[in-house]
Amino acid sequence: MAPLVRNCWDPCDAGNHEPGRGNAYEDNTAIPSVNASKSGPTTIVRAYIDRTMQETLLRHEAETSAAPCGEATFATAAERDLACARLERAGMVVVELEGIGPSARGRLAEVVDEAIERALCARSAAGPGITSGSDRDATLSDQLFRARRTGAAGLAVVLGPLRAAAGFRSALGPEDVATLRFLADATRERPIALILDRRDATTGAFGDPVALRSLLEPPAPEEASAVAPAPEPAPAPALAPAPAPAPAPALALAPALAPPARHTAGAVVVLKEETWRAWTLQLTAARGAQPLAVLERLFAESYMPLANAIAQGLDDPRARHARDEFATTFSKGYADGFATFAASTRRPRMVLDAHDVAARIGRLHGARGTRVLLVDAMRWDVARMVEEHVVAKLGSRASLTDELMLWSALPTTTLRQLETIARGVEALRAPSNLDEDASGHQEPPRGRTAEYVRRMRVGPREIHRLDLIEARVQAAGGAVVAELPGAAEAAAEAITRHVETCPPRTLLLITGDHGFTIDRDGSARQGGASPEEVLVGAFALLVGETH
Fold first, then answer.
1. Which of 32, 243, 365, 515 has CA atoms 20 to 30 A from the CA of 399?
2. For residues 513 and 373, is the Cβ–Cβ distance under 8 A?
3. Alpha helices by DSSP H, 91-201
4. pLDDT of residue 29
5. What's the CA gap between 342 and 407, in Å, rounded?
6. CA angle 96, 101, 104 (to 5 degrees)
7. Do 79 and 203 touch, CB atoms closer than 8 A?
8. Are 499 and 481 in contact (CB under 8 A)?
9. CB-side exposure of 505: number of CA atoms within 13 Å?
10. Contacts by 147-151 with C-beta closer than 8 Å and gap 24+?
11. Is there a contact between 74 and 198 (Cβ–Cβ < 8 Å)?
12. pLDDT tens profile 449-498
């Protein structure tokens, strides 16, 4: 066979041509004779074609084999969990998607395809074949073929609530509806199962398009009938009214049975769309080191709501495991990293930086003075409730300028935070030997004394302090969860009274010093390195009439 290598011509060797010496621009491939027999594809090409045809036939046989077709149903969260277990036992590749949010709007097909590819990759399936991205049928056939090659019986797509991905008029867009209709149609012919959330049975959806003329033009009036209308019959003579029958005795109707209350697992936050499932998945998906901004957002949007739901009675093993795993990883990482804060400037904003933070915000908003109000035991979620009440009570007398999250020093006690405010970073390098009873079990003021803001000096700095939340939490015993809303409203009332004493154009930074955890018996604990104890909320108010 003639060699299939042709030497290319290098223009730089144009002047070095020597006949018969194998120059770069000469064609070394032998020219076949005109009388030579013409041959078809080479052996390598023919083998490739045969192998491709065999794979195509195997793929067709896998799809048209005697495997049972799938199903398309709506199910509750508990029913979806049972269906996942049943389908896995049946040999299906289960693709579960919970927490579908606005980011999936208009691209549900991509989200489902990515989830299927992850599930196939977890089963060590082969890579995807060469298909067109716009050909859904070919893509699904390729995925089914690869799933069957791993020993699976088919694919099962389990989707959580889709209402968060709805758009105009709370309805799913045409692209997402087309994806769901394609999957539903595929379940009738292929081993595919599609399970949706039962509440999505009433979710709006945009269907097939209609002609624009039918929407814009008024409806054509009905043609008048050529037949003359029949004359109205003459009115019948009035008859004497018949005596009314005696009213039958009223029957005592049984009161209508109220619909059974929806199970909420004892947590108020579980009432809407069971969002605790999305929080659980988001915490479970957070693996490895996270940037500071991502970690704070994950704490505020997923961890804290889930921890409150568990404290209010949510009893789900997956939720507790996600909460405990995040808390354990955070505590260990923060305890290890806290020792380096004294020798490095790369640390988060801490409670000891409260005065510097207030001064910076004050300069940005042209404030004439700054104050720092330290609210004892005001952790992050309580700070958000206090902020909401304060802003509503003050109205136009003050404006909210910033919302922040600060980190407490270890141990997370009141005296430790006061020491760091007084000494700054030096307190991290050489902490004082605080008395154990004073640091861990300091009694806050009780009665009406705790309802007022106190002015105190801590080292060279001046702060204002409110102990109302700490006093309420310690007095609540095992009912801390029920006491938090009332404590937040009372603290907001005390802060509102203090704001009225501030001169105009004063920047008031209101921050917590440390947080606390709530045990399963409902009591509060503090002093550790858990996320609830370390991360505290803060917000800034600019005092004065706003327009």
1. 515
2. no
3. 108-122, 136-149, 174-186
4. 44
5. 14
6. 80
7. no
8. no
9. 7
10. 147/93, 147/120, 147/123, 148/62, 149/125, 150/93, 150/120, 150/123, 150/124, 150/125, 151/91
11. yes
12. 888 999 999 999 999 999 999 999 989 888 898 899 999 999 999 999 99
Could you tell me how many residues make up the chain? Answer: 547
Residue that is written with structure tokens 């694919």 in the block: 155
| pLDDT given for residue 132 in this prediction | 56
> Residue 147 CB: number of other CB atoms within 10 A?
24
- How does pLDDT run across 382-415, given as a tens digit for each residue? 999 999 999 999 988 999 999 999 999 999 999 9
Q: What is the DSSP letter of 331?
A: H
Helices and strands: H and E segment counts in the chain: 18, 14
Separation CA 422–CA 177 (nearest Å): 61
Burial environment of residue 224 by CB neighbours within 10 A (0 to 12, 13 to 18, 19 or more):
exposed
Give the phi and the psi of residue 518 in degrees, each rounded to 5. Answer: -115, 120
User: What Å distances lie between residue 334 and 34, 166, 302, 458, CA to CA?
Assistant: 82, 39, 19, 26
Question: Can you tell me whether residue 405 is helix, strand or coil?
Answer: strand
